[in-house]
Amino acid sequence: MTSSGTDRPWTRLIDHVCAGGWKNPETGLVIDVAFKRIDIGEALIDSATDRVREVMPATRYAIVSDSRTHDALASRLVARFNAQPGLSADDVVLQDPHADEATVAQVQQLTRQAEAVIAVGSGTINDLCKHATALDGRDYCVFGTAASMNGYTSATASITLANGMKATLPSHAAKGVFLDLSIASAAPQYLSAAGFGDSLCRSTAQVDWYLAHRLHGTAYSDAPYRLHADDEALLIAQAAGVTRQEPAAIGALHRVLTLGGLGISVVGSSHPGSMGEHQISHWIDNFAASAHPGSIHGQQIGIASLTMARLQALLLKEHEPPTVKETYVDEKAIRKRYPSAAVDGVLKVATSKALSANAAALLNEKLTENWTSIRERLLTMHVPPNVLEQHLRAASTPLTPADIDLDPGLYHDAVRHAAEIRDRYSMLDLASDASLLDDFVASGC
To answer: At 204, is the secondary structure helix, strand, or coil?
Structure first.
């Protein structure tokens, strides 16, 4: 039940998925997603009130933005809603908002008189409105202002908790996602470059996820990747257009990001696009945020994806499997490394991942028996780091920690320790257990 807002054929698959017409090729079952409408096109604002009312009927809305997105789009939306008989819209402008629990409560308070909420922005604004409305049981829609991330079609929100730790919290899906290419093409280019970096972690995440499946039985599915395989190739071909902010290229980027988000609905988890590269980014956000000037998610993911591609290439070039060893959790070092609010959680994850002598022997046996088939399959998914770098460079995506003013030493710490903060198995874990990770980091990763 979607309308693309344009007759371009690249919107049809998204419409098909949202209408319940796409079947998981592995199971034959129809995929049911929570999004009623996802529109990608130009001049969507011209029919904004009709689009919103179709999926989220109300008489009083709150339109939430920050100072930049208010100037870019929200002020015009407010005017359009208030010009419609029988409709009203509260104009809620947040000043330099952060996606944290205190600001979520602020959004709830500032929008309390409205029946439904319209977010106008990208990562922060979307997460705040998504989580605030999930907590109090109201619907929300989002008008995206930049092709910077895939969170528009996610039912989770990245929120910093009161203890200073960032967490991915269950929230709910937007009733409508409206992505106006004229707005996104006018956004700062670094935002589109970040979205490009976020989208190209597909290969590193897939390699890690399949590895976890073969070694530890983690549920795995090719379906999310089949959903946007053709689109990824089309986007890469238009990478230079992302640099130039061409509407067609920004549309291709929005499409891949949207399909990536929908792919998560296929399997009910973020594994398809969030593995080792996201572990590194999460470590930076949680434990190095005060030591760098505020890079955004997709920039970190682009850099971390290059790192993971290099590590994966290092392990996959070997015809013989790595040999893992019994691991030791250095509780004293962990307590010194992390703030007190995080220590117990990190120790829990690190301990659960630690290999006893017996577990190491069993894993080595599995690696010996299956490495040839695992390696062959992973090589079909893997994008060589030099190729990935070419793609990222073409879209002007940052390539090194220095490109985002992140101290290389801090980044190396993130690579070295990221696996111990999240209970997902990636090549970071395999390299660490095989005593290869320190040398990889020392080489510059």
So the answer is: helix
Question: Which range (162-166, 322-326, 431-435) has the least confidence?
Answer: 162-166
40, 59 Cβ separation under 8 angstroms: no
Rounded Cα distance between 30 and 196, Å, is 29
- Domain carrying residue 122: 9-187
Q: Write the pLDDT tens digit of every residue in 160-182.
A: 888 878 888 999 999 999 999 99
The Cα–Cα gap between 229 and 135 comes to 35
In Å, what is the CA distance from 216 to each residue of 326, 353, 364?
16, 11, 12
Please give the backbone phi and psi of residue 422, each rounded to the nearest 5 degrees, phi first. -145, 135
Answer yes or no: do 320 and 379 share one domain.
yes
DSSP string, 66-117: EHHHIIIIIHHHHHHHHHSTT-EEEEEEESS--SBHHHHHHHHHHTTT-SEE
Q: Which of 263, 274, 277 is nearest to 225 (CA)?
A: 263
38 neighbors 2 (Cβ within 8 angstroms): yes
What are the residues whose beta carbons fall under 8 Å from the beta carbon of 103, sequence distance 6 or more?
94, 97, 128
Domain count, the chain: 2
H-helix or E-strand containing 437?
helix 437-442
Residue 207, CA atoms < 13 Å, CB-side half-sphere: 27
Terminal C-alpha separation, the chain: 46
245: left (phi over 0), alpha (psi -120 to 50) or beta: left
Read off the pLDDT of residues 275-310 as tens digits, 9 standing for 90 and up: 999 999 999 988 886 666 678 899 999 999 999 999
Ramachandran assignment for 158, one of left (phi > 0), alpha (psi -120 to 50 degrees), beta (any other):
beta
Under 8 Å between Cβ of 193 and 397: yes
Q: At 319, which amino acid appears?
A: H
Q: Please tell me whether residues 134 and 283 are part of one structural domain.
A: no
Q: How far apart are CA 436 and CA 293, in angstroms?
A: 31
Digit-coded pLDDT (tens) for 20-76: 888 888 888 888 888 888 999 988 999 999 999 999 999 999 999 999 999 999 999
Q: What are residue 91's DSSP bridge partners?
A: 63
Least Cα distance to 62 among 135, 150, 125, 151 occurs for 125
Q: Does the predicted TM-score (pTM) go above 0.90?
A: yes
Give the whole-angstrom CA distance, residue 394 versus residue 67: 31
CATH of the domain at 165: 3.40.50.1970
